[in-house]
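Reply to dn_fold:

You asked what the input looked like. This is it:
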Amino acid sequence: MVYRFKEYRKSTILRNHLNMGGENPKGERIDVTSLYFERGGKPWVGVMGEYHFSRDEKENWYEELCKMKAGGITVAATYLFWIYHEEEEGVFTFKGNRDIRSFVLEAARAGLDVIIRIGPWAHGECRNGGFPDWLLRKTFRLRGNNPGYMEKVRIWYEKIYEQVKGLFYKDGGNIIGIQFENELVDDAQHLLALKRLALEIGFEAPLYTVTGWNAKYGAKIPVDDVVPVFAAYVEAPWAGRWEKLPPSPHFVFHTVRNDAAVGEDLTRDTDESGWRLPYERYPFATCELGAGLQPTHHRRILVSGMDAYALSLIKLGCGNNFVGYYMYHGGTNQIGKLSTLNESKDSGYPNDYPILNYDFHTALSQYGETRRQYGLLNLLHLFLNDFGSLLAPMEYVGSVGKAGADDKKSLRYCMRTDGRGGFVFVNHYQRLIRLEDITDAVIDTGNVTFPAIDIKGEVSFFLPFCLDMGAFVLEYATAQLLCRFRNTWFFAAVDGIAPRYKFRGKKEVAARPGPDGAIEEKGIRIVTLPWEKAVYLRKLNGKIYLGQHCDLYEADGEIKAVQDGGFTYFVWREGEWERVVRDRPFGQAQVRFEDVEEPFTPAYVRQLELGGERKRRWKRIHVTTKEGFIEIPFACDVSQIYADGRLCADHFYCGEAWRIPAKLIYGKESYLVMSELKDDFYREFQIEGK
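and this is what came back:
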């Protein structure tokens, strides 16, 4: 079957229409058009990953930021939770794990820009959305322009500015953006007042953002002063019900940016006041693509690597020109002087979250381990970091015919093009649903027709057409473009699709996937890697590396692996792969669990009795060394670990073994307590015996 596209229509690009943009001391500028961002006068696609400095140990920041950089992240985003820094009114702290200045400097050291999300209200599953308890006891209304609240906000902003002064882009620093508030949907005047207050204090950056979702017609924002950024999650663990949700619309190609508006195609164009967010004034930008999800007590969700990868690829195909993930790196909540700092029903929130665990089941775990989405997402990030300036001006063109989320038969596809060349995006994946195989699919872009391909299994990919490679034009490739190193272009072979390349004026050439299966033409070399090898491809400090089943990163000029122990990798040199073996002594901790009677009353009993009274069982934990991770395989409802009487970890069971670093409990008297597992929550796993 032949698959075609709708007509391409070039948009008019607005420039200098927003109160945005800025220059650094070297003369480089960051600007915003209505279609894309620019950096140094060229279209630019930032890749942003959320990592909360206050939810990790200060000693870990640099290495974890280096892992993010290796995964293709170029911008680190981080919340400043007010309650973390002023839990008691008038008593501020920015020391230790709360040291925002050191975090920004460590990000610069790792080669990352930073966007700070300064609230005042932040949420992020933090207690009171980040508001200190004392603020909630004030008599004035919060999150509005009344003088009492704004005076407290002024103090908060001034304290932040004292910490980050001199680190902004205009100073030669790496803070390129500021987000105000979060999920405020109906008060443009307050958002504008927050920006004006920040500017008055000294916050000056090229980019100012606000979240644009959670209102049918888009959040009401000051249209000239901020860029709205959007979200997309593959499930909704915050939903107040236990049943399975309908198939997610985020796995089909559509241009609806506002998650709250999905499916509202029969509603009026504006609200009663005439408001509609003017999307055409802004590039499509995201700040919360769900690379993972945090389980609630009543909904236990596990985000797979393919969930996250397909989600990001689809939004990219639909025109996303600033890729932002929430979370990209998990974390661990701190415990305050006056309360725990997690969001829960105790703080008036509808859902219960773990006290400490903010792992988010995302690309990098709370303890710095990689998950499947880390390597898969990097397939997109490699491309964006090398070819973002090519993709950004290209516009979304939809398919002829429309596939819904519950459509198992139709091909899901779109393209981005400038009218000459571009990329065809195909998604054959729907979360928790098996799509039917498609055979002999012929994709016709209007000026290039791809050869017939079979699209089977769970695959999601994009293919280039009319790609200018300098010496010649690549009319099409049936493999996914990754990155470029000098005259070598790297591609990934899509599972089930033979990689073929057609150069203009030449016959089609079939490639053999593998590190040694290169094609050469007029001084241009194409290397096609099998998909499962490509997920370990890294571009570090301008060089190409390929890990042998290990995730490589660079820190302080040294190539390291995330995985423990010795490791092997390859470096691309002069058209060949050079093998490097690194020995690294490692003694994996062994764990032993000993059944015991309750040794003490746990400090946080209520968490063990969520949903009602539950039986508890205890085990003492013995580990032999502090190296590596141990697994806790027991099925339960909630588990807590106490080391020397202090809660050091907790977990809502989601159907897989819980992994913690052995060093967390080594040398300490450590106990595991688990509450009884009942059939009283939504889950994506089977309870034994049910």
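Residues 372-391 form the longest helix (20 residues).
Hope that clears it up.
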